[in-house]
Design brief:
Helices cover about 50% and strands about 15% of the residues. It contains 11 helices and 9 strands. The radius of gyration is 21 Å and the shape is globular.
Length: about 375
């Protein structure tokens, strides 16, 4: 199988790498964190100008008709630079719901403004009791005439502070953990009845706890079947997991480069620490862990196009297991090899470890997905 990038994909990689190289060093990232919502609106506009926000959308909707591999290229680059901008919640998740479940009217209303950078999204899914189970939802959606009334609370909503539109999961019928009776809604972020509490997560990203109190939305706010939206949610989240795997590979790759460079320059007792064989062995183990993660990220990327939903979910879960394990190992070894300096806020290697830890936790950690893989059908 040929894993070489095509000419167009190579151009895409050079384009996004070039954008981030000149605009996203460690010092600049700290400045972007201070902006409202915790990310740079100028960088977001530049991403729109380069066409990065329109990649996965069809040409009929104004996009470029790119696929999962192009998203993998972009997400890996974003991971290498610890990018804060809401590409995942807006383009991958918000855009994914529109592409796979949106009506023609919903697509026309939202996709052009995603592509030009004038609208961002947030996915309000996680609840206190739900952990990683996408179907565990207590937020309710009840009909009032032709409209829906949403009540409930969502936690750790990435980009919830700045988002123009919220993608909200709610229960239209049944008990809290039923796999039917789930609905997904497009909710304007400024609608009456929404309360927010914003904060910064461990890796520097801004998140928000959002309360919905009698929030009224029209019937056409529902994406797909309002009584059986779980298959749609699972498909979009699997695509998000695949994108997170690619981001983690980019962060691991950069962590390894930073660590190897440190071993080549750091002296103790007049000797380069990179000359110690035991540390060389650690670096070699990090390379192996990275390549294992890279291979599984490619597998997850290909799996998003599987026709069989169960095999797709199993493949993505298997990738998430390896990504989580590799990320933990590379993060720990990077910190160990840097010694005390790695623990300081001024050293960027610690920030990569924090991001890798949060990527593992997002949409299911390695242990959660390992249990799913062990229970599920054969992947191939």
């Amino acid at each position: 199988m040929n894993f070489e990038l095509s000419e167009e994909q190579g151009l895409l990689k050079r384009s996004v790498d070039g954008l981030l190289k000149g605009a996203y060093d460690f010092a600049q990232r700290k400045q972007y964190m201070k902006e409202k919502g915790g990310w740079s609106k100028a960088i977001w506009r530049r991403m729109a100008e380069q066409g990065l926000l329109g990649l996965p959308f069809s040409e009929a909707d104004g996009g470029f008709g790119a696929g999962a591999l192009e998203i993998m290229i972009v997400m890996s680059a974003l991971g290498s630079s610890l990018v804060l901008e809401p590409y995942l919640p807006t383009v991958v998740i918000g855009g994914g719901f529109l592409r796979h479940g949106g009506s023609a009217a919903q697509k026309a209303a939202h996709i052009p403004s995603i592509i030009d950078g004038s609208q961002t999204f947030a996915f309000a899914q996680l609840e206190k009791q739900s952990r990683y189970d996408l179907y565990d939802v207590t937020t309710t959606a009840k009909r009032r005439g032709r409209d829906w009334i949403i009540d409930g609370k969502k936690f750790v909503v990435i980009n919830g502070e700045n988002a123009d539109t919220l993608v909200v999961t709610a229960r239209s019928m049944g008990a809290a953990r039923d796999k039917t009776g789930l609905a997904v809604f497009l909710v304007p972020a400024n609608v009456k009845g929404i309360g927010r509490k914003a904060y910064r997560t461990q890796d520097g990203v801004r998140a928000t706890d959002i309360t919905f109190t009698g929030v009224e939305v029209s019937a056409d706010a529902a994406i797909g079947d309002p009584e059986n939206a779980l298959p749609l949610v699972e498909r979009v989240v699997d695509e998000a997991r695949s994108a997170l795997c690619a981001e983690a590979v980019g962060a691991m790759d950069e962590s390894l480069k930073i660590t190897v460079e440190y071993l080549k320059t750091r002296r103790q007792f007049g000797v380069l620490i990179g000359s110690f064989q035991s540390l060389q062995h650690r670096a070699a183990d990090m390379v192996i862990a990275l390549e294992q993660a890279r291979s599984m990220s490619m597998f997850a990327t290909m799996a998003t196009n599987f026709d069989d939903d169960a095999k797709r979910s199993q493949a993505v879960a298997a990738a998430k297991v390896q990504i989580g394990r590799s990320g933990k190992f590379i993060g720990q070894q990077s910190m160990q090899l840097h010694g005390g300096i790695g623990m300081s806020m001024e050293a960027k290697i610690g920030h990569y470890f924090k991001r890798l830890t949060m990527l593992d936790q997002t949409f299911g950690d390695a242990d959660y997905h390992l249990s799913n893989v062990s229970r599920g059908p054969a992947i191939v």
